[in-house]
Q: What sequence folds into this?
């Protein structure tokens, strides 16, 4: 991550509060220190380039979330989507701050945007917060439910071995891609992130529909110590379209096993339940991991997948990876994919 020193930036409040008392508390922190603010802007990102190949199995790619390659064709693809982002933060005094974050996603092999219609696909958000009171934010942001699902996957939804949205998010897509360009992010979000309270945190958000779709609500609660992690979350459009999930893990030092359960109702893909079990093993050169996932749609055609991979750390910012993922859906033949690549973070 590259940091640029900046002169004092204008203060911007881009979040509207769903709790007026909390907003007033933030405002009180700010106005008591009208000068001496420190500001910074950081450039960060990932450049990931790899090669992947899948066999000609008939189990669809949606049941092997990281496949991303046509059958029997060597394909250049990212294990973890390449991106470039900008983060800015201003110290408002009295432990308060204002910040912004914008993130663009792209394919490094072609330079093309991941989505032709949404440039800041990753996120575009402005926030006001403090360590004592937490944070209010507004803009395009991840659903709070996503963070629990992401933590349940040892690959963080990366590579051909990932559990991904199928096995930690019950393949839930609330609305069509023409309405929302991502099933894990919401436009027009207003949210609150709590401070860390002895390992316990929570986040709640609503995303305005603005006449295009229904208003969504989502939230999570997580508890984390040096070894134990537990999280629950939900994402909801209405009584007929919603998601609930829970996940937990315990770090034994030599191995970090995790399990998850997710239940989807309605949405684009219909009712379903998913389960996952995984293990991450730290090594002297990086880490190794293995996963098992089961996806059970109410309409039938159950699917199971296994995944495994290794990361070799060249430095704190650069790593090599190789993975295998394999899935089998009822009535189909097994689809298997492998990948190898390099990822550089800055």
A:
């Amino acid at each position: 991550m590259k940091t640029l020193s900046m002169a004092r930036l204008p203060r911007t409040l881009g979040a509207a509060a769903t709790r007026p008392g909390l907003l007033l508390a933030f405002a009180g922190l700010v106005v008591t220190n009208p000068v001496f603010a420190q500001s910074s802007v950081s450039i960060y990102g990932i450049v990931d380039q790899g090669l992947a190949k899948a066999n000609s199995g008939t189990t669809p790619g949606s049941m092997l979330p990281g496949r991303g390659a046509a059958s029997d064709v060597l394909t250049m693809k990212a294990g973890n989507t390449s991106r470039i982002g900008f983060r800015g933060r201003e110290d408002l005094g009295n432990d308060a701050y204002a910040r912004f974050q914008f993130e663009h996603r792209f394919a490094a092999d072609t330079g093309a945007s991941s989505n032709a219609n949404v440039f800041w696909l990753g996120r575009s958000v402005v926030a006001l917060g403090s360590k004592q009171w937490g944070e209010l934010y507004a803009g395009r942001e991840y659903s709070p439910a996503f963070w629990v699902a992401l933590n349940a996957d040892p690959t963080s939804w990366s590579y051909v071995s990932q559990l991904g949205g199928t096995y930690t998010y019950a393949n839930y897509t609330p609305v069509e891609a023409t309405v929302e360009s991502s099933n894990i992010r919401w436009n027009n979000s207003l949210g609150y992130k709590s401070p860390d309270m002895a390992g316990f945190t929570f986040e709640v958000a609503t995303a305005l529909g603005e006449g295009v779709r229904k208003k969504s609500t989502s939230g999570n609660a997580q508890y984390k110590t040096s070894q134990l992690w537990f999280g629950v979350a939900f994402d909801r459009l209405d009584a007929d379209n919603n998601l609930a999930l829970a996940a937990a893990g315990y770090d034994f030092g030599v191995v970090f096993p995790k399990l998850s359960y997710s239940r989807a109702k309605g949405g684009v893909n219909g009712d379903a339940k998913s389960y996952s079990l995984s293990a991450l093993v730290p090594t002297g050169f990086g880490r190794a991991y293995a996963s098992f996932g089961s996806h059970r749609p109410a309409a039938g055609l159950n699917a199971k997948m296994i995944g495994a991979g290794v990361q070799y750390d060249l430095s704190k910012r650069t790593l090599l990876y190789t993975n295998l993922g394999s899935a089998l859906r009822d009535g189909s033949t097994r689809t298997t994919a492998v990948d190898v690549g390099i990822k550089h973070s800055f």
User: Anything to note?
Assistant: Residues 6 and 265 are 47 Å apart (CA to CA). Residues 2-19 have pLDDT under 50 and may be disordered.
